[in-house]
Amino acid sequence: MTQPPHDEPTAAGPEELREQVEQTREELGRTVEALAAKTHVKARAQEKETVVREQVTARAGELKEQAAVKAGELRERAAQAAQHLEDKLPAPVKDRTAQAIGQSRAVATHLWQDKAPEPVQQKTAQGARIARDNRNLLLATAGVALTAWLVGRRRKG
Which residues of 2-28 are buried (b: 16+ CB within 10 A; e: fewer)? Predict the structure, then answer.
């Protein structure tokens, strides 16, 4: 006969032995379930996917916030640079520039009305209205695109 292990007490009677067997079965069942869960590749992959998706979502939110901040900074710097340039221009240059812009618009408008087909003029007018109505969204999108482009160039350089 075999000897019982030293760390387990021997059963005093058949009832106690049955209880020990039942307890051992329950422990063994829990151990088997834990091992089965560890070897269930699909479930573990889904858990990992969920964790990674949450991390990516959080990082995307951070990047979106950073892009918004950078876009605001760039917008401010561009406005300051434009104001600085405007301040440096002499009055006669400003006047001539305004005159040239006015003449160019008049010529372009005249050519556009004479040469462009009516459906193209209508679609262009519709696009201009949409752009005017959504100016803030358009500017924000352009700012984010510019920021992404600058960040990409900085990483490459």
Answer: eeeeeeeeeeeeeeeeeeeeeeeeeee
Long-range contacts of 37-42 (CB under 8 A, 24+ apart): none
Model confidence, pTM: 0.35
Residue 6: helix, strand or coil by DSSP? coil
Query: Per the structure block, which two tokens stand in for 129?
Result: 């209205």
Q: CA 126 to CA 138: how far, in whole Å?
A: 15
pLDDT, tens only, 19-49? 999 999 999 999 988 888 777 778 778 888 9
CA 144 to CA 138: how far, in whole Å?
10
Side-chain-side CA neighbours of residue 104 (13 Å): 6
DSSP letter for 13, please: S
